[in-house]
Amino acid sequence: MPPPQPASARPAGKTAADTSTGALERPAQASVNAPGFGSDLVAETLRALQIPYIALTPGASYRGLHDSIVNYLGNSTPQMLLCVHEESAVAIAHGYAKVTGKAMAAAVHSNVGLQHATMAMFNAWCDRMPVLVLGATGPVDAVKRRPWIDWIHTARDQGALVRGYTKWDDQPASPGAAREALIRATWIANTAPQGPVYINLDAEMQEAKLAEQLPPLDATRYMPDVATAAPADLIAKAAALLKSARQAVILAGRASRSESAWNARVALAEALGAGVVTDLKIGASFPTDHPLHAGAPRDVTAESVPTIRNADMIVSLDWVDLAGALRALGPSPAAKIIQISLDHRIHNGWSMDYQGLPPVDLFLSADPDLVVPELLKAIGGAKPRIAPAPHAQTSAEPSGFTNEHIARTLRKALGGRAVTLTHLPISWEDRWWTFRHPLDFLGSDGGGGVGGGPGISVGAALALKNSGRLPVAICGDGDYLMGITAVWTAVHYKIPLLFVIANNRSFYNDELHQERVARMRSRPVENKWIGQRMTDPEIDLAAMARAQGAVGFGPVSNTADLAAALEQAIAAVDAGQVAVVDAQVEPGYSASVTAAMTRAKN
Ligand SMILES: Cc1ncc(C[n+]2csc(CCOP(=O)(O)OP(=O)(O)O)c2C)c(N)n1
Ligand SMILES: [Mg+2]
Can you tell me the distance from the alpha carbon of 309 to that of 322, in angstroms, rounded to the nearest whole number? Predict the structure, then answer.
């Protein structure tokens, strides 16, 4: 008799299709016996923590844990999501956290797997997103090591690889210590300011028989909620400052995806009549068609600059780079600055992602989502709602075929349906899309690590599955190609997602830099494409999608063809598929984006 096949390997059409991710890769005989090995206890703890998924690329260093998840837990809570590259595994967990605000797990092989994972961990760190990264090592006890391979895959201090951009790491020496480490790690990761954590599991500890059963433990008692509100006297001080302001401006920075927090931000802005500046580095934080919205300042637009320069009060709700914004936007030196942030709590000496030190007149070391409703109460509540402006439409159809054409054509193809933009290319301009809900846009990769877009988008799409929202990832071709195998994971686990690739066949951002250097040195600008363009041959991006089981469209290089491809692609995603549309745009950015990226004058 042939062995039973996992559900995903059954020929299509033989059974009613169950498209839920949880129905896939069911183990033959999921056992429900008592934990027998160290790694069983680790697995059991992941379940106690309600970790839904563990994205992984396998490795012998955690074969014990792998077995425990499959054969002890029956591959659910957590369910494995196989990834072709560790960078995707962590990026998927990062994207999942961007939607849910909670950590899922990623598992990576001893040192080499972690080395692959590092950029994605750095992205999650800079984005302040929680991820529980599990790694492995050893055996730490040298006499237990197999020759060669166990030696090269053991390091004295593996956590040192990622300590500069994780909130905490540990290498527990026993199953009991591992249980505690996992609980502490998850608690720390999910506590604001959030971030990735790393737990390194000794291979020997995982594989050894449990010497004794540990007493049961209620994990929730060890992870108390940490709600960091501001004390009443500081709320009162801030409210008094705000009431005395002639013109306040809110820099709406890092925020949760909570709808009520969003509504409170809107109410506060309306009560103050404050202009609100947003930031494409982070998820949507304010309705961009609201009359008080004053743009996103990367492109130092005519809109946001006067708003800030006229202000006598600036309120930063955990703005990513307050010092940088103040320097670039040049408010009046007399303007008072209120900073509401917890970010200083995780600044360290390795990474300078803490940005410049801003001048601050009143500092509230608190979670802005908790402070805003209190401020609103203290200043006397909200005025009647201000009606949003009609959908922001940019002026006349631009010439050529550019990222702006992608935005326009996609908007038309999607009509009024609920969409989450899971990723945008670096040259995207905020005025091309309207955000009206915290899930309309999830922000950037965080750390500027190109290649994060596809994995983050797959993780976000996983979290959005069955939510009624269509996940749309718009990625640069460089970004897509660096993270391309995340597409396979989405296809394999039936995670519907639309990719549109802004394919300028170049690492174009860096062409701009070569152009800038050439100008500064009076050298030939026309050579800027060398070492940047991915042509001759052009890479067939749609074929690379099809090779992994996705549906691929294009290349298309005009609006009509793009519209036709999008119509089919959206229908495919509605039918549960992953679709990739290759839009061959012209290389080139707008003047304001170019200036912002190259430190050149506009
Ligand atoms: C891992 C990594 N490598 C290199 C860079 C430098 N870099 C910044 S943007 C960029 C180009 C990205 O290309 P693409 O996604 O196609 O976007 P485009 O610049 O063409 O708009 C590169 C190489 C980076 N930020 N991250
Ligand atoms: Mg490109």
Answer: 15
